[in-house]
Amino acid sequence: ALTCLRVLPQLEVLNLNNVEQLTNQGVHHVSGLTYLRELDLGGCRALNDAAMTSLQHLTALTKLSLAGINR
Length: 71
Known about the structure:
Blueprint: E1 13-15, H1 24-30, E2 38-40, H2 49-54, E3 63-65
Parallel strand pairs: 1-2, 2-3
């Protein structure tokens, strides 16, 4: 569960590559990481446009990998 990310508010890099169980709700927990600069969601096939909407609050994000997401 990504709820544990709440204790890491200053996290800058997160690699969730090929975590096929990652859901849109899980990505919502990532949206609170306002210091996040790099995020890899490649291969997380369960994600769709709703997950991307959650990421709009990540204003420090400079690198986002979505390789292998078909939606």
